[in-house]
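To the structural biology subgroup,

Please find below the input and predicted structure for Cellulose synthase operon protein YhjQ, which we are adding to the shared reference set this quarter. The sequence is reproduced verbatim from the submission form. If anyone notices a discrepancy with their own records, reply to this email rather than editing the shared folder directly, so we keep one authoritative version.
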Amino acid sequence: MPLLCFASPKGGVGKTTLAANIADALRRQGRRVLVMDFDPQNTLRLHFGVPLTDTGGFMVELPKRPDWRDLVRQTASGVMLLPHGSGDIRGTLGLAHALERDPELLAAPMRSILGDPNLLVVADTPPGASHALNIIAPMASLVCTVLLPDATSAALIPDIESGRFLGAGTMATLFAGRLRVVLNAVDPNARLSRAAAETVARHIGPRLLGAVARDELVAEALAAQRLVLDLAPTSQAAEDLREIARGIEAALPSGPDPFSAGWGAR
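Predicted structure (tokenized):
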């Protein structure tokens, strides 16, 4: 039933990589995990070894109101995957318009998915604000924001702290209490990286779940279409991922989720 959303106010921060590898780490901790790709780039599948020729997916089929169960990929990692699917710009714009016009198009299957009390759902959302994020964020137990240790991320701290990048007004206020932050690609040997990480950590405080070290093994894992804990289980990045997964476990509600319970009852 818990829903963990990975989001970021900007692209290029490694959000999808973290979503995939944290999902795998949570599965290794004993969770039954479904990971969903809401990003039209459709790259989440690559981390799980899904063939490039497999271009189908949940979001591209959404206007047809499919049964989501028929679109689940069983991956070698044990994590279940609902890929976004490949489409063109016309399809992407059409889907955005359909979600704006009828949010229930996505909200209804999400309530069905979250109705399984033994399932942890990990969602990878597009960078910035999106109709999909706007629909699923109210159902989320946690929204995990991914940042890099750089000046741009430090400048975004006010938007992160207030939840403004998720929306505006009352909705932003509601989401802010569920926000957590992960710093990605931290290089402790680089002065600027270390200083930026310290700045973010100082401002975010207890909302910071942890940091993942800059490690070329992460890129190698993606190139091999494998997960970090599979390819390099003793690496620093692997240990960082395990630690963040433990932090997420501690932060997730142990009973019925007060944020998503109202949605599931509808």
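Summary notes: The chain has one domain: 3-258. The CA atoms of residues 141 and 253 lie 7 Å apart.

Regards,
Lab coordination
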